Amino acid sequence: MGNADYEQLLRGASLRVTRPRVAVLGAVTENAHADTETILGAVRERLPDVSHQAVYDSLAALSAAGIVRRIQPSGSVARYETRVGDNHHHVVCRSCGNIADVDCAVGHTPCLTASDDNGFVVDEAEVIYWGTCPQCQAAQRSK
Amino acid sequence: MGNADYEQLLRGASLRVTRPRVAVLGAVTENAHADTETILGAVRERLPDVSHQAVYDSLAALSAAGIVRRIQPSGSVARYETRVGDNHHHVVCRSCGNIADVDCAVGHTPCLTASDDNGFVVDEAEVIYWGTCPQCQAAQRSK
DNA sequence: TCCCGTTTCTTGACTCATTCAAGATTTCGC
DNA sequence: GCGAAATCTTGAATGAGTCAAGAAACGGGA
């Protein structure tokens, strides 16, 4: 993806096209599941003088527009990804915090209809799998 | 539940029985989904001089022992509940942050087997439904 | 019941992701 | 190009949660 594509995305969402936003979009695309600090670093490779606030603002705007998705497993700082709208979920490693994508086993929005919703109008179901990643399994075995 | 029951629970988990822990267990039981600050307040009604650190430590010990469950939806501070081990999930209101319990529609650990686990050993699947609670729906309609 | 080693609690300082605020810039419809 | 509105820069503030050192409490064994 080039900057032109990112601009398209922004315009399509009725967002103003600014250099920080384009750079943030690029950084998130190239760094799936990265935290804000990592994204800030990646953005500054393209745009050395962005403020961290601009990155926070951009991420918030992009999230609100549905262009990026914010994920934040317990005990972690906020992380972002651009793969949106395909009902995929995440596995998080309990020991190193690594995150990987997982497609839900049961087809379309499965088990994602609450049996008794307490009157809530539910618009999204989020699944997080907790476990141990291959590297940490190996590390534990060798202890 | 009385304090004797809480003491049983603690001993059953090989945890030392201390007054802060008993009070914390009581506070969490009576305040489902409460955040740490609320729990601290409730604990201090029973034990006026507990330090916040003791509450944090107790909550960590109880969580590690599986007696309480810690939940932390994106954008929220940590919350705790004592209903554990029954595979139930939560609905979170996007506008007011309220949380309610939900029993999973599909029987036992459904859709909770990732189709491709990337080599992770998964030990838990956590589901969070996002939506709008009845009160906030009413508030929005009347606008 | 008392003692002692270990765990837990108290106190108080500190971290750091995120937010807030005010003023300067930039974007984009006209 | 112009100007209003949105966005960005700078710098300070917030606050949940953590860290550390010493004091107190717990509970197994005498």
What is this structure, in a nutshell?
The structure is a homodimer of 143-residue chains. With 143 residues, chain A is an alpha+beta fold.
Properties at a glance:
DNA-binding; alpha+beta; 143 residues; 3-stranded antiparallel β-sheet; 6 strands; homodimer; 3-stranded mixed β-sheet
Which structural class fits the helix and strand makeup of chain A?
alpha+beta
- How far is the first residue's CA from the last residue's CA of chain A? 43 Å
H-E order of chain A: HHEHHEEEEEH
Q: What is the gyration radius of chain A calculated from CA atoms?
A: 17 Å
Which two chains have the most extensive interface, and how many residues on each? A-B, 43 and 42 residues
Note the overall shape of chain A: globular
β-sheet strand percentage of chain A:
15-25%
**Number of helical elements of chain A:** 5
Mean model confidence by pLDDT of chain A: 88
Largest sheet of chain A: 3 strands, antiparallel
* Strand element count of chain A: 6
**How much helix, percentage-wise, in residues of chain A?**
25-40%
Strand order of the largest sheet of chain A: 1-3-2
Low-confidence stretches of chain A: none
**What does the oligomeric state look like here?**
homodimer
How would you characterize this protein structure?
Two copies of one chain form a homodimer. The first copy, chain A, has 143 residues and is α+β, with helices and mostly antiparallel strands. Chain A has a three-stranded antiparallel sheet. In chain A, strands 5-4-6 form a three-stranded mixed sheet. Chains A and B meet through strand 4, strand 5 and strand 6 of A and strand 4, strand 5 and strand 6 of B. Chain A binds a DNA duplex (30 and 30 nucleotides) through helix 2 and helix 4.
